[in-house]
Write a structure and sequence with these properties.
OB fold (Dihydrolipoamide Acetyltransferase, E2P), 2 domains, NfeD family protein, Membrane_assoc_protease, transmembrane, NA-bd_OB-fold, membrane
């Protein structure tokens, strides 16, 4: 009983199984490999003389093409965001006024940010001084003193 028409059907079954696996374990990757297996299955059905080496080359080539198209499709479309710094906590702190909790001496100290403390780097200032976060480097906030005195126009 020959219920399986050959290698082409096996490739199509593999494509279906990979597609089902993508649905069960979403990762936006198996769908591209499933597409390559499906194309290889169709090519194997259309060209039965395509041997195993040809099928594997087809599968590998179509996998690369499908993954590259998928990367381009998904990789470039970040979409507009109402808050582009949403997941960048340090970028959200730039411009914030914070209080020095451990005096900045020799260029290093600590500042209070919300209900926590962060290491800080900047000019020497005593405890309790309000400073402005101007940047960050390797998890250390870079701070500058706040100039509260108004500047007179020249």
């Amino acid at each position: 009983m020959d219920w399986l028409p050959g290698a082409g059907a096996l490739w199509l079954i593999a494509a279906a199984l990979l597609g089902i696996a993508e649905l069960l374990i979403p990762g936006v990757f198996l769908v591209f490999v499933a597409l390559a297996a499906g194309i290889t299955g169709v090519l194997t059905l259309l060209f039965p003389e395509l041997g195993l080496p040809g099928q594997l080359i087809s599968f590998g080539a179509w996998s690369v093409v499908a993954v590259l198209i998928g990367r381009r499709w998904y990789g470039n479309d970040d979409g507009p965001s109402a808050d582009p710094r949403l997941n960048d906590r340090i970028a959200r702190l730039i411009g914030e006024h914070v209080t020095v909790t451990h005096a900045i001496e020799g260029g290093y100290g600590r500042v209070r940010v919300g209900d926590g403390e962060w290491p800080a780097r900047g000019p020497d200032v005593p405890v309790g001084t309000r400073v402005c976060v101007s940047g960050a480097s390797e998890g250390i906030l870079i701070v500058e003193p706040i100039n509260d005195t108004p500047q007179l126009p020249e």
